[in-house]
Every structure is written in structure tokens, then in C-alpha cells.
Amino acid sequence: MKKILFTSFKRTIDIVGSLVLLILFSPIMLITMLLIKMGSTGPIFFKQKRVGKNSHEFWMYKFRSMYTGDNDKRLRENYPELWKKYKESGWKLPMCEDPRITPIGKKIRSLTIDEFPQLINVLKGDMSLVGPRAYREEELQEQALKYPKTKKYIQIIRTAKPGITGVWQTSGRNDITFEDRAKMDAEYIKKQSFVEEILIIFKTPMSMLSRW
């Protein structure tokens, strides 16, 4: 019964919260759309398959912050050292080193504005406001091979909807390893509660402002 109540509560918060935030952020989103269009050729939005609840993949939306084309292939073929660093660092590169990101993209990423379209994913039910990180399938598979101890955490992560924000994003820890991220996400899923959900939501704006 408690789990059913929590699931209903969480979905209600997701729908109401995403609608309010879409309305609140609409001026910023409109300006961002214009800047992206003016800054480089290509679509305004970017979509990529991510792993959702029970391992069902879905299209996650973002504002496009990279140049068009197969950026991973370009990075792998033209910048082998950066590609190696990208994979070894948990599929991440510092923005200042990443040649795939446009000048406008660097600005909207630093302000986390690129993630605003994920509110549409929340409305659709693919994601929640709060949850584990939305991973790519190949990322989970490679990290499980690289860090065998995380397999048990990854299994738990696959059972939940990914979130726009989460426990480790609001922990105040900037450079966090995949092992720590996976463990924190798994522990959040196992101990989900009304209080923790609300705390993470209220801590998120402060976490965002600290990057500004």
C-alpha cells in the first residue's frame, strides 16, 4: 500500500511540477531556441536513446549543444586521446576540451539549460523529476565490465524511471566516479521516501545556482 501511495504521489509531483516549470522557464527556452538556431546549422532539439524503467529504452530530449553529425565517431577518429579519456572518465569530457560542443552549447550546458526539454519526457512518463541518471545502454554495459562490483547497482537502476535530478547531483560532489554514482542511485531507489523526494527537489535549484 505504501509503495502504491508513493508511486501515485511521485507521478502527481512529476505532472504538476513539469507543467509549472515548463511555463516558468518558457521565456528562457524561447531565447535558447533562437540562440541555437543562430549559432550553428542543425535542429534545435537533440534526442538520444536512454535506458528507462525495466530497461525499456526511450528518446530523451535536450537542447542541441553539439555540432550536427556523428560526434562520437568524429571524436573517436579525429581525437583518439580525447576519446580514450571520454570513455575512461565515465563518458564525460570537460567542456573546455570537448571539440563537439558549440560556443552556445557551452553556455547552455554550464547553466544546465540544455536539460530543460527533459520536462517533456517527465510529462510523457518516460522520466521523473527525481531519479537515477538516464544512462545509455552501451554506457551501462561497458561500465559493468570495467567495474564488476557495480553490476548489482546497475540491476537496481534498471528498475526505476530515470530523473532530471537526483541524489548525487544535489550532493555537492562535482567529480564523482561512476561507481559512486551507481551506488548512490541504487541506494536512493531502495530507500525512496516522500521526505527524500521533496528534499532533492528543493536542493536542486541551489545545486544549479552553484554552477552559475
Folded structure, characterized:
The chain has about 210 residues and is mainly alpha-helical. It has one domain (about 1-65, about 100-210). It is built from nine helices and four strands; from the N terminus they run αββααααβααβαα. The mean pLDDT is about 90.
List keywords for this structure.
two-stranded antiparallel sheet, 56% helix, two-stranded parallel sheet, 4 strands, 212 residues
Strand content: 5-15%
- Give the N-terminus to C-terminus distance in angstroms: 41 Å
Biggest beta-sheet profile? 2 strands, antiparallel
- Helix content class: 55-70%
Shape: globular
Overview in brief:
Helix 7 (151-157) crosses helix 8. The strands form 2 sheets. A two-stranded antiparallel sheet has the order 1-2. A two-stranded parallel sheet has the order 3-4.
Q: Layout of helices and strands, plus pairs?
A:
Layout: H1 2-39, E1 45-51, E2 57-63, H2 71-78, H3 80-88, H4 103-110, H5 118-124, E3 128-130, H6 137-146, H7 151-157, E4 163-165, H8 178-190, H9 194-211
Helix pairs in contact: 1-4, 1-5, 2-3, 7-8
